[in-house]
Structures are given as structure tokens and as C-alpha cells.
Model the fold of this input.
Amino acid sequence: MNRVGVLARIALVVAATATGAARADVSADVQRELLQCAACHGDDGRATAVPENGRIAGQNVDYLVYILKQYRAGRLQGLNGGIMTSAMRHLTDAQIVEIARWYATLP
Ligand code: HEC
Done:
């Protein structure tokens, strides 16, 4: 494949990856975080591919804020709680609220 073809392919992959999370009312830094969440919870937050990770789409916003802060604080050390603690550790309170609001609006 020539150079232009390779670049076009990369652009397509990036576009396809971003579509799932792209949303006008979500800030750029949180959009990037949503791509991480999508890797484990699915683009639509329904965890169709790996149900054990938990369906988070359409969940109550207050519950999401609460549970994400619990994971961030390392207070949920269940079966795979450590995975979520690492995924949440760097997030601010404001980012958690924004992420929770976004998932709460998904069907
Ligand atoms: C590397 C994979 C991975 C990433 C990245 C990840 N999660 Fe998770 N998530 C999990 C796993 C595994 C669990 C179940 C943890 C357990 O056993 O307690 C979980 C649990 C959860 C839960 C609790 C579900 C429930 O039913 O109560 C929520 C909410 C959640 N994740 C949201 C998020 C959000 C939001 C992000 C992105 C900021 C994220 N996760 C990133 C793997 C991941």
C-alpha cells in the first residue's frame, strides 16, 4: 500500500474509534477518557462483549459518581476492582461528574 493509502486507513480507524464517544457537550479530555472506558465497557457502555465488566449505560448519574469515586479511592477491591482503581486514579471530581452524566444519558 502506498503512503497516502496508509494515512487514509489510519484516518479511517481514528474516525471510527472516535465516533462512539464523540459528543459535542463533552470536553476534549473527557472524550479521551471515554475511549478508555469503551475499551472495557463497550462503545455504547453496555458491556456486550464482556458482560462481567458491567453495563454502565443509562445508569443513575448519582450512582455512577458515587461508585467511580469509590473505585478511585481504592475502596472497592472486589474481584476486578483493582482494574477500575487504576482506570480512575488520575481523574478529577469534575471529570468523574462529566463522565457519569454522559453514561447516564445513554440508552
Ligand atoms: C481495563 C478495563 C477497564 C477500564 C479501562 C474501565 N473499566 Fe470500569 N470496570 C472494569 C471492570 C473489570 C469492572 C468490574 C470491577 C469489579 O470486579 O469490581 C468495572 C466496573 C465499573 C463500574 C461499576 C459497574 C457496576 O455495575 O456497578 C463502573 C460504573 C465503571 N466500571 C465505569 C467505568 C468508567 C466510567 C470508565 C472510564 C473512565 C471505566 N469504567 C474504565 C473494567 C474497566
About this structure: The chain is about 60% helix and 0% strand. The two ends are 40 Å apart (CA to CA). The CA atoms of residues 5 and 83 lie 37 Å apart. Confidence is low (pLDDT under 50) at residues 6-19.
